[in-house]
Amino acid sequence: MLLTNRRHRILFAALAGLEVAWFLPFALTLFAWMMPERAPLPALVAGLGSYSPLALFGLVWGLMLLYLLCIDLLNRWQIHSPLHEFAMLGIVLGTALLLVRFLVFPALAPWDLRWLLAVVSALFEFAPGSTAIIFLLVVNFFLWIRVATATDRALTFFSVGVSFRLGMLLSLVGNILLILVARQPATAALTYFWLFFGFGLLAVALARIDEKAMGASQSTGATLPWGRFGQLLVMIGITLATAMVSASFYTPTNIKTVLGWFSPLWNFLGTVFLLIFHTLFWLLIPILERIIEFVRGLLATLEPPENLPQELGQLGEQPPITINEIVQNVAFVRYCMVAATIMTVIILLLILFARTRKRGLGEEQEQTANEGLAFGGNPLDRLRGLGRLFRRYGLGPGLLAAISVQNIYANVCRLAGRRGYARLAAQSPDEYLTSLRAAFPGQEDKLARLTAIYMRVHYGDRSVDDSELTQLREDYSAIQATPVPAAG
Q: Which of 72, 104, 218, 374 could connect to 410 by a Cys-Cys bridge, CB 3.0–4.6 Å?
């Protein structure tokens, strides 16, 4: 993510900013709903709603980038399962406790551990002032969920575009709630809205550049130059400035003034539509009267319902028992609900981290396999690929050599994909060769030889002899040992 090439690094940072921009209005609305004015809160938390939107966004965005960097470093250390998942749970728990310690209990001495008891009491007893602790735990949990899902996120133009459109809807709803429920000024909501659009446009543009760079035969798939990135920022700034100026002009007062210029036309159209409505209503009066007579006839044939039993009437007079009363009065039910919530959160995090870990281990096993069949992502594709090779080479050494060539090329492509140079589905091997050269600098001859033999095996019917296969295996070992190119 952040420890990859420059284009992907900026793209992940832009996606993080996009999510923080639409999430903060919801978080501030939740804060205003959970924190009554009478609750005693420390200054750092009590002033959360009055912070500058830019400063608050910068703090949360930086925290999310820090979490992304933690997952990157943990994945690079190649910690095996289940230690990997438990390490992630420890990091999530540690960051949550640190947030509570420094924001809710900043005045306590470092060796004073009474705040841990306050956290446990807040979770299980809902003591006064515990809403601040619960709020920080919820925010931290959400950030980690988004970070965990980001590790498996596709960076295609379509996927980023879907995230942008969904985020736009969430941003609109969140900022409306921020104004109506949290009583925040409209300028704060507009700030979060413009931040969302700025990072959203940057993410969409970078995803398109990445897709064109990897898919075009004229491109080398190089990292994003700083000059081109500066041009992109300037264009996004001009777009946002134009939108801001247009929004300041198209105000309700100005629109009302412009519409007032056409008041004679509206009066004329209103008179015409009113005449049409009266005419239609006059024509429909006989039909409506028939319907009323028909309904009256049906009601006249129905028997009146019997009186309800006296016991039911007495039961209806008793006030119902609410879930809130049960939770507050029955400690066992309260503890069970809190324990079930905590277990659900832990299971969800384990599933997300295990999914990310399995995906990484699966790629690693495929990359280091020596003789594996790699024709597609499902068994039917593999069987079809095997059938094509069997028709070309028959059952013999030629078939095994062709399978080895297919596997070596597939493994090289996967290695290149992990370095940020993935092969697109519609990209031919000769077009993809430029990306392979960028992923493995200094191995141009070996990559060209591998591509030529793969195309000969995959598209033709010429077999590979033992000397060529031995050379390919030596080339593959050298390609594997190629250092990762430095991200500029």
A: 374
pLDDT digits (tens, 9 = 90+) for 299-324: 777 666 555 455 544 544 555 555 55
Question: Which residues span the domain enclosing 228?
Answer: 6-249+330-359
Kindly state the greatest CA–CA separation across the chain. 99
Assigned token pair, 190: 């507009």
Q: Are 353 and 382 within one domain?
A: no
Q: Give yes or no: residues 473 and 337 share one domain.
A: no
Q: Is 363 exposed, middle or buried (0-12, 13-18, 19+ CB in 10 A)?
A: middle
Does residue 389 fall inside a structural domain? Answer: yes
Task: Give Cα 183 distance to the centre of its chain.
Answer: 28
pLDDT in tens, 77-108: 777 777 877 888 888 888 888 888 888 887 77
C-alpha span between 89 and 358 (Å, rounded): 16
Do 352 and 374 have their domain in common? no
> With contact defined as beta carbons under 8 Å apart, do 457 and 472 qualify?
no
Q: How far apart are CA 190 and CA 184, in angstroms?
A: 11
**114 and 222 in one domain?**
yes
Percent of the chain as helix, strand, coil, to the nearest 5: 75, 0, 25
* CB 404 within 8 Å of CB 465: no
Cis peptide before 82 (omega within 30 of 0): yes
Specify burial of residue 314 (Cβ count, 10 A radius: 0-12, 13-18, 19+).
exposed
SS3 107: coil
What is the model's pTM? 0.55
318 in any annotated domain: no
- Please give the Cα distance from 374 to 372 (Å, whole number): 6
Rounded Cα distance between 425 and 419, Å, is: 17
Specify if 319 maps to a domain. Answer: no
Question: Could you tell me if 87 and 225 lie in one domain?
Answer: yes
Are residues 59 and 205 both part of a single domain? yes
**51 with 169, same domain?**
yes
* Domain-located, residue 59: yes
For residue 243, how many other CB atoms are within 10 A of its CB?
Answer: 13
